[in-house]
Amino acid sequence: MKIIWTCIQWLVVAAFIVVFVFVFNSYRYLLYALICSSVLYFPLTKIIANKLSNQDGSEKVRYDVNGKRITMQMSKLTASVILLIVVYSVVISVFSISPYLERKEFVLTHPNWVAVTPSILNLTADIQRGKNKYAYIDLEYQFTADKHSYSKKIGKAEKLYSFFPIIGKRRFEEMRIDLLNRATKKNIAKECLLFYNPNDPEQQKFFLANDNFYPQGSWLYDILFVFSTIFSVIVIMAMLFKIIP
User: Fold this and answer.
1) What is the three-class DSSP state of 209?
2) pLDDT score for 170
3) E strands within the chain?
4) Measuring CA to CA, which residue among 209, 155, 214, 218 is closest to residue 184?
5) Dihedral (CA of 228, 78, 90, 9) sign
6) Which residues pair with 153 in a beta bridge?
7) Using CA atoms, how far apart are residues 45 and 139, in angstroms rounded to an integer?
8) Which of 28-32, 78-82, 218-222 is predicted most confidently?
9) What gap in Å lies between CA 155 and CA 158, rounded to an integer?
10) pTM of the prediction?
11) What is the C-alpha separation between 217 and 38, in angstroms, rounded?
């Protein structure tokens, strides 16, 4: 029974990883993280080995909570996995706050795709309420390829998160209007760009904006308030304990 429960847990973890890596984000980001973490791991190997060994070079004897002996090889594997997770988190964070880098990465990895400026047929903004609150844009675009017209609707083409907790309908409406104005300006400036596969025009990738830096469009911007609050509390507590004998 314990083995079955362990297998179920690993299956849940694997399913979560697959969804997060291949559905919510591009699988290419994982490849970049693998390359970067591999490059970083080799210079850090000596440091990791020193941390896992005694001063005379012999291996430290360590045990997990179940009393199982942890070898240096297992510890190195754990360190490499942690490094990969950290690097992958940095990679997806960088691409999520920079529409320019996201578009540039797509251009470099899809050199055969054709870029066109689509016609925006419909552009609306609404609010996502619930646990994660943000404003978002729904749109419909149209373009012509090989004398054929194609159109597509995109839900939540761009989002606008708030750094501070959203309280009241007025703030919700302000966010909705701000995002709608932003999307309208991008459309007027012809900043919107569509890439499609010339061999199969049904394969398309739409980019609304090309900002170098737009953290408000990333969910990291939403949770940044929580982290900054926790950090501030820790700093204040440390100062208080230092002042008060």
Assistant:
1) coil
2) 84
3) 62-63, 69-70, 114-116, 119-128, 134-145, 148-160, 193-197, 200-207
4) 209
5) negative
6) 140
7) 49
8) 28-32
9) 8
10) 0.73
11) 30
